[in-house]
């Protein structure tokens, strides 16, 4: 990675060494560690550390703190290139995941989760920025869909291995975490040495960027972060706590999600390109509102495990449509704003994540169904915001309200 090369020069490299190939390699590497951690998490903390709803809420609050401080990426970019920071962050995620089972106490789990979360969130911030810089606007939706499919394929292999070997070979949490995190770490080291440093076409601003004309993007990011927390923290926890799913059973459910994503993510990318961000986001948020209402019905009306598992899969599929939010920003943004705004947006996305899991963990103890009804309200708020996305977003046409404003120079 010592050699520097422009994106145009990189097109003369072998296909496997080009920028898009690096995006695909990292898309394969990150989910292996993160989803191995996720697949075992609920069973690990319940069986080993005796977590309850408030403990799992606290854990996810700690996990999201680095996301809230993703704005620190801007400071790191003063001394480190985005590509290097992305690979180093991926390495940290892999190593921290590998040693998770070495710390089977509340304090230990919180500490190692914080380290892996720094790697995950800083990687995701930089990765989103690189995707929007390295992909042209016409190809971006379809390529982003294929990147989602690639990540799902990598995770499918990891989950499949867990399902097939967990009981057959009586695996331990330690061995699985070491394998999953270790593979990601090896991929990160390979990515560091095998690829040159690709020079961006437009130099990125190395300071915090907040612009009024991006307000709708910021608002959608905030609501997406709040909504996501309820799914990530409590949907899987419900399957274990209420329905008694074991490791291989919850992982089998994840496998269904992955197969669906592998088949549908490229279709979703093509749908965004065909129907536009406005219609895609409206469809996503309306679907999520219905899903969360039905989740609540499981607790209030005693609906069964088949509905819960079905909703879990549908919920996961709808979240894949969030790529439309990325391409919406790509179309309205100044090219030099992409890196700093990716950091700002990640911080905004995680504002609710810092306090919401622990508060909802306490609400969960009183009424789990109320947690999901609250999530449905958040999805409806996002739906209202998505109605403000114009059919053809671009600089100067960021929202449907823009025509109602007195014409002023774009900020």
Provide a compact summary of the structure.
This protein has 411 residues and is mainly α. 73% of the residues lie in helices and 1% in strands.
Keywords:
mainly alpha, 2 strands, 14 helices, Growth Hormone, Chain: A, globular, disordered C terminus, two-stranded parallel sheet, 1% strand, 411 residues
- What is the level-2 CATH architecture name? Up-down Bundle
Radius of gyration: 21 Å
CATH superfamily: MFS general substrate transporter like domains
At the first level of CATH, the class is: Mainly Alpha
Number of helices, counting only DSSP H or I runs of 4 residues or more: 14
**Which structural class matches the secondary elements?**
mainly alpha
Could you say how many structural domains there are in total?
A: 1
Question: What is the terminal separation in angstroms?
Answer: 36 Å
Strand arrangement within the widest β-sheet reads 1-2
């Amino acid at each position: 990675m010592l050699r520097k090369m422009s994106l145009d020069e990189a097109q003369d490299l072998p296909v496997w060494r080009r920028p898009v190939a690096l995006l695909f390699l990292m898309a394969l590497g990150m989910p292996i560690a993160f989803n191995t951690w996720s697949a075992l998490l609920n069973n690990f903390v319940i069986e080993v550390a005796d977590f309850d709803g408030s403990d799992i809420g606290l854990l996810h609050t700690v996990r999201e703190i680095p996301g809230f401080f993703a704005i620190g990426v801007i400071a790191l970019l003063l001394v480190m290139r985005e590509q290097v920071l992305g690979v180093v962050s991926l390495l940290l995620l892999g190593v921290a995941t590998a040693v998770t089972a070495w710390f089977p106490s509340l304090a230990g789990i919180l500490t190692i989760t914080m380290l892996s979360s720094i790697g995950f969130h800083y990687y995701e911030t930089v990765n989103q920025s690189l995707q929007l810089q390295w992909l042209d606007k016409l190809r971006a939706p379809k390529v982003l869909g294929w990147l989602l499919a690639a990540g799902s394929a990598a995770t499918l292999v990891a989950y499949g291995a867990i399902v097939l070997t967990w009981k057959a070979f009586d695996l331990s949490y330690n061995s699985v975490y070491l394998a999953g995190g270790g593979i990601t770490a090896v991929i990160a080291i390979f990515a560091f040495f095998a690829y040159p440093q690709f020079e961006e076409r437009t130099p990125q601003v190395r300071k915090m960027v907040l612009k009024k004309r991006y307000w709708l993007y910021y608002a959608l990011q905030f609501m997406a972060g709040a909504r996501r927390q309820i799914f990530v923290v409590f949907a899987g926890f419900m399957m274990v706590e209420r329905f008694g799913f074991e490791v291989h059973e919850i992982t089998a459910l994840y496998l269904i999600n992955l197969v669906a994503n592998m088949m549908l993510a490229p279709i979703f990318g093509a749908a965004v390109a065909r129907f536009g961000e406005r219609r895609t986001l409206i469809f996503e948020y309306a679907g999520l509102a219905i899903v969360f209402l039905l989740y609540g019905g499981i607790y209030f009306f005693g609906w069964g495990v088949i509905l819960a598992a079905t909703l879990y899969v549908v919920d996961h599929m709808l979240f894949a449509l969030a790529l439309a939010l990325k391409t919406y920003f790509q179309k309205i943004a100044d090219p030099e704003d992409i890196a700093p705004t990716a950091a700002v947006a990640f911080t905004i996305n995680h504002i609710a994540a810092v306090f919401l899991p622990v508060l909802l963990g306490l609400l969960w103890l009183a009424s789990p169904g109320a947690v999901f009804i609250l999530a449905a309200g958040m999805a409806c708020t996002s739906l209202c915001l998505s109605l403000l996305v114009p059919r053809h977003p671009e600089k100067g046409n960021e929202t449907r309200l823009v025509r109602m404003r007195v014409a002023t120079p774009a900020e």
